[in-house]
Design a protein that fits this description.
The chain has 188 residues and is mainly alpha-helical. It contains seven helices and no strands. It is globular.
Length: 188
């Protein structure tokens, strides 16, 4: 990230304005990959099993373990969510806001990836009760989810559409519905 952002430090990166920024797409891709990997590592310890129809698939003699399954589900989640977000902005005639949206969301997910790295280190290298930790992780992710919605609603870049019904549509279809889909894929 240091090379892509041209030697910018963390404060400069987070306070950077959209029109002063460069290399937004590579930053978004790197941040998304780090977030997906760290989230898959953390969640993989809590899924009960890999579904039988997935576990029975063999590609070149290899089968998916819990981490591989979680990684594929999380990547699928972000790919679908990003595609639907792009289509949402194009369909309401606000396609230029899409680049401002992913520029702003990159900063949010950049901070989230640091928090996920800290959670992973704590989870794997310190003796914690994993059953109690799961409850705290759920509370943490609920807080992050609610914070993200307010972050998007009240951000100074006005990344969500101006009309209230488009905001409501975005929150329901591109924030809540994909999260429910991931929860169903991982835990049921």
């Amino acid at each position: 990230m240091n090379i892509i952002e041209r030697e910018a430090n963390l404060k400069d990166f987070l306070l950077q304005k959209y029109f002063d920024a460069s290399n937004n797409l590579p930053s978004w891709i790197i941040t998304s990959c780090v977030t997906a990997l760290t989230l898959a590592v953390l969640v993989s310890q809590y899924i009960p099993i890999v579904p039988k129809h997935i576990a029975d698939l063999q590609i070149a003699g290899y089968r998916l373990n819990k981490f591989g399954y979680c990684l594929i589900v999380v990547i699928f989640f972000y790919a679908i969510k990003s595609t639907l977000g792009f289509l949402f902005y194009q369909s309401i005639g606000d396609g230029k806001k899409w680049s401002i949206f992913y520029f702003t969301s990159t900063k949010f997910y950049f901070i989230l990836s640091f928090l996920l790295i800290i959670l992973n280190v704590t989870h794997y290298y310190f003796p914690i009760d994993r059953n109690k930790a799961f409850f705290y992780y759920l509370c943490f992710f609920a807080f992050v989810f609610i914070f993200k919605i307010f972050f998007y609603l009240f951000h100074k870049n006005n990344i969500l559409p101006k009309k209230w019904y488009y905001k409501f549509l975005y929150i329901c279809t591109l924030q809540i519905a994909p999260l429910l889909l991931v929860w169903k894929l991982l835990f049921f």
